[in-house]
Structure formats: C-alpha cells, structure tokens
Amino acid sequence: MDTNKSVQLDGAIIDLDRNERQGFPEVVYCEGKTDQQCVDIFMTLQEHYDTFMGTRARISIYEALKPHIPDVQYDEMSRILYVNRNPINRNGERTIAVVTAGTSDMPVAEEAALTAELMGNKVLRVYDVGVAGIHRLMERLDSIQEANVVIAVAGMEGALASVLGGLVNKPLIAVPTSVGYGANFEGLAALLAMLNSCAAGVGVVNIDNGFGAGRLAHMINSQR
Amino acid sequence: MDTNKSVQLDGAIIDLDRNERQGFPEVVYCEGKTDQQCVDIFMTLQEHYDTFMGTRARISIYEALKPHIPDVQYDEMSRILYVNRNPINRNGERTIAVVTAGTSDMPVAEEAALTAELMGNKVLRVYDVGVAGIHRLMERLDSIQEANVVIAVAGMEGALASVLGGLVNKPLIAVPTSVGYGANFEGLAALLAMLNSCAAGVGVVNIDNGFGAGRLAHMINSQR
Amino acid sequence: MDTNKSVQLDGAIIDLDRNERQGFPEVVYCEGKTDQQCVDIFMTLQEHYDTFMGTRARISIYEALKPHIPDVQYDEMSRILYVNRNPINRNGERTIAVVTAGTSDMPVAEEAALTAELMGNKVLRVYDVGVAGIHRLMERLDSIQEANVVIAVAGMEGALASVLGGLVNKPLIAVPTSVGYGANFEGLAALLAMLNSCAAGVGVVNIDNGFGAGRLAHMINSQR
Amino acid sequence: MDTNKSVQLDGAIIDLDRNERQGFPEVVYCEGKTDQQCVDIFMTLQEHYDTFMGTRARISIYEALKPHIPDVQYDEMSRILYVNRNPINRNGERTIAVVTAGTSDMPVAEEAALTAELMGNKVLRVYDVGVAGIHRLMERLDSIQEANVVIAVAGMEGALASVLGGLVNKPLIAVPTSVGYGANFEGLAALLAMLNSCAAGVGVVNIDNGFGAGRLAHMINSQR
Amino acid sequence: MDTNKSVQLDGAIIDLDRNERQGFPEVVYCEGKTDQQCVDIFMTLQEHYDTFMGTRARISIYEALKPHIPDVQYDEMSRILYVNRNPINRNGERTIAVVTAGTSDMPVAEEAALTAELMGNKVLRVYDVGVAGIHRLMERLDSIQEANVVIAVAGMEGALASVLGGLVNKPLIAVPTSVGYGANFEGLAALLAMLNSCAAGVGVVNIDNGFGAGRLAHMINSQR
Amino acid sequence: MDTNKSVQLDGAIIDLDRNERQGFPEVVYCEGKTDQQCVDIFMTLQEHYDTFMGTRARISIYEALKPHIPDVQYDEMSRILYVNRNPINRNGERTIAVVTAGTSDMPVAEEAALTAELMGNKVLRVYDVGVAGIHRLMERLDSIQEANVVIAVAGMEGALASVLGGLVNKPLIAVPTSVGYGANFEGLAALLAMLNSCAAGVGVVNIDNGFGAGRLAHMINSQR
Amino acid sequence: MDTNKSVQLDGAIIDLDRNERQGFPEVVYCEGKTDQQCVDIFMTLQEHYDTFMGTRARISIYEALKPHIPDVQYDEMSRILYVNRNPINRNGERTIAVVTAGTSDMPVAEEAALTAELMGNKVLRVYDVGVAGIHRLMERLDSIQEANVVIAVAGMEGALASVLGGLVNKPLIAVPTSVGYGANFEGLAALLAMLNSCAAGVGVVNIDNGFGAGRLAHMINSQR
Amino acid sequence: MDTNKSVQLDGAIIDLDRNERQGFPEVVYCEGKTDQQCVDIFMTLQEHYDTFMGTRARISIYEALKPHIPDVQYDEMSRILYVNRNPINRNGERTIAVVTAGTSDMPVAEEAALTAELMGNKVLRVYDVGVAGIHRLMERLDSIQEANVVIAVAGMEGALASVLGGLVNKPLIAVPTSVGYGANFEGLAALLAMLNSCAAGVGVVNIDNGFGAGRLAHMINSQR
C-alpha cells in the first residue's frame, strides 16, 4: 500500500496506478466538477496515458480542453469525452452485446458501448427490440446469443432484462434507464423490476449507469 | 336515487339494488370485519340472492356460517366464501383467460378466476408460464389468444403483463402480486412495472386484487 | 413468428404488422427521441398507413415534419402529432365517455379522447365534474351511463374514479394525473387512490397516461 | 410557567394542570408502556380526576387495573380504557357526526366517537356509507348536515372525505385508516388522498388516529 | 340536488350556489389552467359576486384580467388574485392567528391570512417564532392564546405545531411548508412531523396549502 | 422454440431443457408454494437429474420429501434443499470468493456459496470482515484477490462492496442483506449504497438474493 | 496495519486491538447471530477484557451465557448484555444527559445511558419531558444545561431535539425512536424531523440506535 | 426567559442574545428570503456583531449588501456570505478535519470548513480520498487522526463515513451530499448509508448540510 502513485491537484487526487490495479486509467466523473477542474485532471491524465475518458461531460468541458489536447473527442449522445491514441482490441472476437428496449434508451446504451470499446472490446449493438414487439427481439436473438456478455438497457418497466435472462445463457448486466414518466419515478420502476427479475443471475447497475455496465462487461469479458 | 333499497345492520349497510345497478350482489370484503359481522351480512344476502360471495374470508367465518347456510362453500386457495345455488353462464363461449407467471401466484389467480366464474363466465387457466422460460408462454399462446379478455397475474418483476400485452390483441388486465422478497417491496415492483408497461393499453388493479380483476374482466366480457 | 415485417432505421425498428396484430399502427412515443429520429419514423409510417400518430410530441417535431408530410396535424393541448387521411368510425354509436375532475386535467383527457377518436370511436367529453361539487357530476350522469366504456381522469385525490365506479355499470378506466402539489407527489396520491378504489373493477393506467387509457378503451369498445 | 403542577413517577411525569389548560386531563397513550407503568399512571390520575382515559390499551392493562379501580371500563372495539364517574354534556345539542366508509373502519371511528363523548359531546354515528354506493351517504346526508363538526373515517382510497367536504358546510376532520391492502401501504393511500382533497378546508389527522380526531372535534365544538 | 345553478364554460363549470352551500364563492385553483381559461372563469364569477378569489395565480393572469376587471388585485407574496368590493367582517373580534416558524414560510402564511381575511375574519400575524429560539414564541404567546383559531405554518422539521399544540387550548391547524432541503423532501419531513404531533388534536393540511388552512380556520371561526 | 420439453403439473410447469439452455436444472423457489406442490416438483426433477435444488425451503418441505427422496439434503442456514448425487467440479481452481461484512450476513452468504458449489465451483468463504475494522479485510485481501469472481455480502450500509470494488480487479457481485434496523428499511440502505458504489463496475442483485449472486458468479466463472 | 490482533471464530472475527484504537472492546450486535455464535464471541472477549457488552440481546443468549460467565448481567429494558468487573469513571463530573420525550422511549434511552455508563461516564436521566407539555422540560432545563453532552430521544414527531437544540449550548445527539404509528412509518417521521432540525448542529443517529448515541456521547465527553 | 433581546423586522425577528447562549450570532438561512429581507437582517446584525454569516446565499444578495457593508465577503463555492472583522482562534491547535470522498463534494465541504473557521477553529482539508481508491485515504490517515473532530463529506454511497469511523478514534460527523444520480435519489443513498454505518458512533446531519456539520464540530471542539 505504500507504493501507490498519485498526483495531487487542487481538490482532486489522480490515481496513476489504477491502470495496473484495474486495467484502465481512472475514469473522470465530470458532473459536479467545474470546467477548470476537469481540464486540470485531463491534462494530468494525458501526461501518463494514451487512452482515457470522462463521463457525463458537458460540451463546455470539451471546448475548454480542445485547445490543450487537440485529439480529444466528444461523443454527444453518450456525453463521453475521451482520448484514444492507440486503440487496441484486448478481447478479440469475444463480443459484448448491448441491447436496448427502445430508441430513447440509446444515450445510456452508447455510454456502455463506447466504454466497452475504449477498454478494448468488440461491441454488438441491438437497439429498439423491447418486449412489446417480442418478435423483433427473437429475430436478433441468434446474434445476441453469440456474444460473451450481454448488457440489457431498458426504461419503463424494464422487462427486457427478464426476457433476455431467460433466453441467453451468458452473464447478463441490466441497466435501468430513466426513460418513462409518471409511476416510472425516473427509473425506479425499471430498477426494481430488474432487481426482482425472475430470470435469476442478473447483475444490475444504477439507473442510467451505462458506464458501470460497460466496465463490468469488460471485466467479465477479460476473464479466461 | 330515492328508490334505493338497503338493509341497515349494526355497523353495516347492505345494498339490495346493486344487483340491478352492477349485475351482481354486493361482494363482502371480510378482512377487518368480525366473524359475527360477516355472518349477519351473509344471512341478509341469502334472503335476497341465490349467488353471492365474500373475499379474503378467514376459515372461521366459514365455520360460523356453515350451520346457518349449509350450502355455503369455501375455497381455501382463493379464500372466497360463496353460495352459488343457481350457476348460470351469462357470456357463453366468450372466455376469460387467467394467466400466471408462477405457481406462487395461484391464490390471487384463483380469486380472479372464481370471481369471474361466479359472475357467469367461462374461464381458461394458464399457470406458471412466466417470462424466464418464455417458450412455456409461447406454447400456450394460441389458446390465450382465443380468449376475449386476458388477466395477467405476476409477482416479482411482473414482466408477464408486458410480454402478453405485445402478443395479444385483447383487453388485458394486469394483477401484480406480492410474490417475491427484498426490493419487491411486497408487490410494489410488479405494480410499477405493470403501470409502466411498454405495451400500451393495460389496465392495472391493486396488488393481489384478484377479485377486482375478475370483476372488471366480467364487465368487459359482458359487453356486446 | 417468422413472417413479421419491420423496417430497420438507425436506432429504431418500425413494426409494420402491428396494424394487423393490434388494430392500429405502432404509436410513436416521441419523448427521448431526437427530432430527426421522429421524422425518420413518421416518414416510414406514412409509406404504409393512412392514419398514424405520435404522443408527447414537441412542437419542433411537428415543424420539422410539416415540410415532408403537409397534412400532418398537431394538437397542442394533448401534444399528439397525427395524420388521419381516412377517418373511419369503427364502433358506431358505441361511445367512450371521457370524464375529468377539473379543468387542469384536460391535456391528459384530450390525449385519451383524441387517441380513441383516431382509432375510430365516438367520444363524449364531460369535463370539470369533480366530487367537490358532486351535483355537477350527477347532472351529467345520464349521458355518461349511456356510454359503453368510461374513462375517469383526475388529479389531486382522484376520488372521481371511486364515485363513478359506484354509479356506472360499465368498464371503467382510471387515469391519475399529476395535477396538484405537495403531498400529491406528482400524481402518486391519485394513483394510489385509484388502485385502492372501493368501487371494485377499475382498471388503472400510469399517471398522465391518457394514451394508454384511450387505447384500452378502444380495445374494450371493439369487443362484441 | 412556574405554577405547573405535575407528579413524577418512575419514567413518567403526569401533568395535573392540563385539565385547566386544555379542558381534559392528560390522555395516556398506552402503547410502548408496560402494564405496571400504565397502572401507576392511572392510579395517579384517579386521585385527581373523575373522568380520564387511555388509548391503544391492551386488555391486560385493564385486567391489571380493575382490582385497583373497580369502575374502570374497557371498550374492546376502540381499545379505550376509561373512568367516567360524572358524565357531563358540555356542548348541549351541538353534535359531532362520525361517518365511516366501511364496517372495517369502526374501531377507529369508535375511538373518535368515545373520545368525543368522554369529553362531553353528543355524537351521531353514521357507518358504512362509503362512496362506492353513494346513495347510502345521500340518504343520511340530512342528519349529517345538522351536525356541528363532521369526522370522516375511511381507509382504502379515502374518497369519503372529499365527497363529504363538498356536501357539508361544516368543519371536516378526515381520519385515514389502515383498512385495505397492497398499494394501500397501510393507510398511506387514504392519507394522501385526504391531504389532497379537492374539497378545500379538510383537516387531516394521522392514520388510525381516531383519538386525535375526537379531541380536535371537541375543541372545535366547544367554540362559541 | 336538482336546483343547483352552474355555468358551463369551455372545459370548466362554475358553481353558482356554492356561496350558499359553503359561505363563499368557488375559489379558482389557477395552476394548470391557461390564462384564457382563468379570465373566462373570473369574468363569470364577477357577474355574480362582489368578493371572489383565485390561488396560485401567475402574474400573467392578473395582467390579462386587469383590462376586464379594473379593481382586481394581485398579492405577489401569496399569489392570490382577488376582487373584494364589499369587505365585510363576519366574525367580529374572533381572531385567527397565523404563526410561522421562519421568514421563508411567509408566502404560505400570507395565502392563509389573506384567504381568512377575504372570507371575513380578523387575522393576527406572528411570524418567525420557530422553536430554535423558543423565547421568541413565548414572548408572543399571550396574544396567540387570545385568538380563536391558530394556524401554525412551518417547514423544515415542523416542530412549531407540536409546541403550539401544547401551549394553546384552541383548534390548531398545521400547514407544513416545503421550506428546507435535502431530507426535507420538499415538505415531507414537516408533514409527517405534524401528522405525528404528540400534541393531540392538530388538523393538518397539504404541504404549502395556506388556502386550505385559511378556509378551514374560517369555517371553525364561523361556528357559534 | 418448438422442441422445448416440459412437464405439466397441477399449477406448475417444469422445464426439462433448462439444463441445456442454462447449464443447470430449473431451481425451485419454494416460498409461496405448498409443501405438496414442492414435493411434486422435486419428484419430477429427480426423474431427470442427479443434481438439483430449491431455495427458501421450509424444513417441512424437507420432511415431506425425505421419505420419497432419501438422499435429499437440507442446509438449515441457507434454507437450500438439494440433491447432489454426482458432484462435479466444472471450473477447476477458478475460485469464487464469498465475502461478508458481518456474522449476521451468513445465511445469505451461504445461499450464494452453496449455490455456486452445487453448480460446480470452488468457493472461498471470507466472513465478518466489514469495513468498521478494515484491517480484518486487508489481512484477507491476498486470498480474495486470487479468486476469479468476488461476491460481497453486506447489510447495514453495505460499504464492503465499494471498498472491495476499489481493491479487487475482478468482476464483483454485490448482495445487500436485510441485516440492520431502523433507517436500514430491511435492506434498502445497503441496496442503494451498492447501486451507487463509487467503485464502478459492480453488479447488484436483490436484497438477500444469495442464490442470484451464486448463479451469476457461476456464469461468469464458466467463461473462458 | 500489520500488528492487528484478532481471533478467528467460526463465521466471526473478534478484534482485540479495538480497545486501544477506540477506547472500548468491540461491542457485539446480537441480532441475526445464533445463541451459540454469541456465546462463542463473549467467551473470547472475557478472556481479554474486564468490561464488555452486547446490544439487542435476546434473554436466551443471557441464559446460555450465564453458566459460562456467572457475573454476566442482562438489562431487560435496554436488552444490553454485559460484564462490568471493574467499573471506572473516566470522565469525572462531566455528565451526559439523556432526555426523552415520552415514557415509551425508555428502552432506547436506557440503551444509550447504560452504554455511556459502561464506557465510564456519569449519566443524568430526564425522562418524559416531551414538547406537548413544554413546562415539564423547562423545569428540568437547568440540570440539562449543566451536562456536557445531551442526548435527545424521541419518537412521534421528534420535536424534542429541535427545542432542546435551541435551549442548550452543548453538543446535541438526536435519537429518533420507532414509538408511534401510522404516518410515523416506524420512526421515519422523527428521523426526518431531527435531520431537518431548525436548531443547527444536531448530530442524528439511526432510529432506535441508543447504543450509537451513547458511544458518540462518550467520545465527545472524552475530549479535552 | 424574560430578558431575551431581539429586533423585530418585517417578517423576521433577529435574536441578539444568541451569541451568549450559543457562542455565535444567529446564522441567516438565505434561501426563501428575498434579497431585501436578507439585507435588512444583515444590516441589523452588523450593528451588534463583528463576525456573522449567512448560508445558501445567492450572489444577488451579496451585490445588494455590498454598498451598505463594504467589507462583506462572499465565498462562491460554499455560497456563504460573511463579515469577519476580528478573526479569532478560539480553539488553538485543536483541529477539525474536513474529509471528502470526491471533488464534487467540495461545495458542501467548504460550507463546513468555512463555518468552522468563522467560529474560530483551525481546519484541515483532505479532499478526494473516497474509498474506491482507499490508499489515497490511508496516505492521509495520520494527519486526519491528529484532528480533534472529523467531518466526513460524501455523496454516492457514502462509504467514507464507515471507513473513517473504523479508523479514527474521534467524534465523527457524517455529511451526505447529493452528488450522484439515479438510485442516489439526491442524497438519500448516502444519508441512509451513514445512518446505518457499522462504525457505531457517527452523528449524521442533513443532506448537503455543511453548515450544520461545521457548527456541531465547533461545539464539540469547544469542549474541554
């Protein structure tokens, strides 16, 4: 515990050994940080890494960072800010499938997918196959079943996770989204549904937490 | 409004015109009433009707009533107490399908089914076809689709309602049950899921309210 | 299940057989979709159908769509975007009554009413007859009782559903609205009240879900 | 504030000036107190008062107290333990009406009614007139309207309070009860409904708090 | 019930006999109504009454109404819009005390106070005497005790209601406000505290419902 | 989907192809089923499998089953009922670590551990190493880090999951337990904590759902 | 961190250096542990300490332990099991005041008081001085103000904490209790009230957590 | 109680003896007060004190006050408005440590830190040492342990409080923050976690209540 390396900024400490401990540099959660704090943190990260990322980034952070790090990229849908100078495929053909119930779940799904890709995984996107029209899911089932890990992204009643859980014999990560209204209570309905899935063996992450799902999928996919 | 008939008991008033207004005598909700109160109410009902029922009845009510009304019946699973002296089929072959996700949902399903039968409907029971093994549902789908009204009974995450809603082009009544544990919060998870069903057009009743589902199904089934 | 027809867009799949399966083309839930995604979906729908609709539509979607589909219409109160080239009356004089407790419940009521009308039903609107002045309801009761299906729309404490449920011997669909404040918790009070209605046999839909109520009423009204 | 009289027992202090300050001796909330603590408190009260009471009393407290205070009475339905040696009518013909939605609400209603009676009020009981059969309420409306204060006791969706509030031009106290199940959440549904009543000017007390309603009604009824 | 008078507007019905039934013309809840709807309603009311009011009014409603009803008034703090052409004192020296815990509770308190005044009551305002500095309350206690009805307005933990309830032998109406943050949950903390007040006999209204408190106080104050 | 094999019992359907689809026979959730229903289901399972199990089993089910299946076993702590005639190790030295915060979490932990063992995994138990004495965890960290998958079982505030998540570079499954009291709300506190873990990439299962965690861990551990 | 001493039992680890680190041996939380587990733990503790304790102990644990540790004591009201062979007063005349709103709060208060005493503090008990009769509190205020730390124990609406917080210029620890019913939600009302206390600077512990309050008071009292 | 000094403003009363009773002038909670109300209050305070402060202040209040009190200061991060003409150190080297889990917790932490400083304490800031990288905390542990009182500020799952509670033998105040999203429910997750901390003896304040933590820490630190 005495050999950890970290950099002390004003109000933030950047871990520099997390890459070794956890296979990827520390990921910056941008919400609640000022633009300047984010810029400082990314500037530090870029001194040590080729690939790194921040989540829930406002566009203004990207604009503030661009002059300093010209190859920084910003994905508007997922709100991920990242640098990826040396893309590598760590897990070969072992694919992570990201499946959504609806079109409105795409921002969360893309956060999961892009996270998994930046960490070196091949990703299969299967979007808008919610259970209200279950044949749409059935038509894509073969390709989903070939994946190594499956991420189910759904708002409203979140039934997609249970249906997938019964159909796919692979580790399944469920991501409830805040898509919906009224008694959805900003994702609570889907969250509870996924936690109570009759398809045992589903791991659930926080509402709208695409990043967490992507990271867990990467960790599972890295096993052998 | 001036021609209503009712009987005043100690602490209870029995409507005697509800049969005309609503197609069935007043149904007694036994919970929270003493055995004696229930006996008094049923004794009054039997003076005016051939068929009547009470829900959530303790066995002790049945035992107290049996000496007075020898043909009273008690269904242990649904906890319905009833007299049915002159069974009639009001709605012919127009069937109500009662579908459950699991075996543990049976008490609620039977409350719905028996209610619908006492009110004069043919009932099709399809039990234990939850979405964790969706092929079980698919195998029974043809017969469900032939029904006129469908009641989906499910606890845990309640996904059955959404899946059925996408597959069946008939009025669908969803009954969340308190089957489950933990973040199920005694049926809340299934209730929220059903209210947020992505399959639009699902009518939801209270948690464990098999009676309400049976009655609504009967009213829908009586339409022509 | 192998003969389903659908169109694959970027992030969305449009069912083209739902008309046959469910009696109306897929309805677009516009919230959470970009204007462009909505335009793409509606453009696809109009190639196959004369009548179709989207709910919770922003005016900007309408404006983006208008140049492409000149006869698209937008109802500001209900926020429904629709094309209705060949209006038909499917259910004759069988009327759906939409009843509200207050004037503020009108946007939700109109979503229900317009949905039912687009699907081919005659609709009777009875607005602002909440139980605080119960004589207003009583004065309109005769016409409500002539309807085939009744939709009760109410916020605050949602008592309208229970009172109507006791007075009308027809299938009753209750729509809680988010009208109110404080311990209303954005519709939760009305939702719980409707689920616990002492008038058994009420089917409840999600808070502010006028569309779901309209669709369910249509399905019930189509029975014979 | 320096002239207060009180008696110090082991773990309890008995106010002896509350009769003057608040018109009735301190009322003992028996739940959570041991039988012995209750006996000690009642023994102290009887040294100073002719009329006093305790709420939520177990029968074992009554049995422990009976040998010491032979004229102590116990009302099983309301669970009130009381001595009433010198019954007086303080408020003449000014009546408090206690109205319930159902028979199962009687224990709470009786707690309110008996409290009001012990404090010297005339009480009119109107039970089982819930809104599912609104004519039952209408038939009793005239006598309710003659009362000076009205207490509405209801579980389930608690709609009785709103309907009464619109019909009666007198102060109305609403008591939600825990009668019901499922999404009633042990009285929460009725509580929220009553707090959100569209009939403005309803004062709500805690779930099952018949005592509080009776006491507030007494205070209102004592005004002139 | 056949003699009720009302005016039917587009989406709204105005009761014209409520003045007789309830002692004051129907009060307009402006939230959720369009400016035009409000103008129509107020125009109808002014044809029949000298004094009438609306709550939760936006300033734009006032501005739209002013050209039509030049003597309409708008109280910015309470957001009450009103006409009061013929102020009368109905209840003489019988005073209603409105007491607040903090300065931030003033908008709700003023809604209560102005409502009571418009209905013809004398009001005593005692503001910013919360229990954190209980001597401030004690210093004003004498004048509060002289009032006939007391309204306690408090956010945060709402302890003012309990303390006042123990000190004042008059009907007490408690109004929780949404003043506070965090675990206050927009007034829930104060609401629950007031419902559970150890000072029995407190009537609680909805969070921020100054109007309801003022109206109930008026009804109590009108008793004799 | 047409080749599924299943057995239809009274109220239950037993899948017989789940072993192939999901690597283990259908697991029976015993809660809510009668003893007789459970016996019927297990008798059917034993005709087809050497290893199978039920969770949340009452001892009475075991006693009813014992005469029919003499080698059935019952683990009192985890409440698992199982037959394991032909134990196999499917995943070699690839170990699943089950870590608990406290001794009281053992029943849930044992449900996870025994499930994983019955499915063919080697399990390392590390109990009572909660973060209040973090050195206890640090002392066992080396062996935990050697595991392939880690299950963190904790009640109260559930901080163990976050701390482990930062220390271990392996897929982590978090199981909140209902151990605790008061504002723990029967496991809700731990559940929310785990869902919000600052250590990204934790998959959470339902409160007290040791079985789900064991099954998911097995699926992850089976990957290569 | 490498010099920690602990004893490994079956499913439990006993810290033996916590006395040094935290000033008192590890306290055993008995709920959820079997009698045998508790006996094993206490047997280990007694080998190393003269004073130690367990909370939430069933009487059966005491009875199982008594033959092994004859001088073990059990306090029925607080449910504390303890050995105190060498009572010491660590903090001299620096007193901790434990104040309750009602008699029913005594079990929690005694848990706090006995904990503080076992840890070596002088305790002043002031019980049943809730705010409904605020003069009772005022009469005892002088002695409370002389204490060094104050613990306020209250259920229902928990107003005692706010009132004390405004009157006493000492660190104040608030303990909500589950005393109450209905909208008390088993202590939630008091908990929220205490967290939102307008008297800034109150530290709150879990519902019914007398032990935590006693321990924190001891730590504060030990400062100098 | 008769010698209290206070100033009556319009809608606000300023205590002028709180400095003596509580060691610091009344602190102004600016939220919900108009700019003018705040200016009036601060003008009154400055007539009597050299040091005083307001929390949750908008910048517009500062700007309105600046012309009147030129030496008023505004700290943008903590939103504290203050005058500190005569800074004093009341508690010498006795330090209060303010520790945060993340950078986003800084506004709340600074509210605590600045409050403690204005009241005369030395503050040690240790930021961004959350448990996801526990070595960061360990590296700073020595300096934290030297403090006299510790304030743990954390959002998300709030595990920092439990970990610190086990490591530091000093009074610990936990401040949950609203940092996070989804099932964080605006700080509820961290709040519940801290209330249920397995590290006994943690005093919790309201979500985001840095001021309350700072004040309580000051009171504890002032003890000797």
From TrEMBL, chains A, B, C, D, E, F, G, H:
Pfam families xrefs: AIRC
InterPro entries referenced in this protein's UniProt entry, alphabetically: P2CMN_synthase_LarB, PurE_dom
Domain PurE: 94-223
Domain of life: Bacteria
SUPFAM superfamilies in UniProt: N5-CAIR mutase (phosphoribosylaminoimidazole carboxylase, PurE)
PANTHER family recorded: PHOSPHORIBOSYLAMINOIMIDAZOLE CARBOXYLASE-RELATED, SLL1489 PROTEIN
NCBIfam families cross-referenced by the UniProt entry: LarB
Protein name as catalogued: Nickel pincer cofactor biosynthesis protein LarB
Gene assigned in the entry: larB
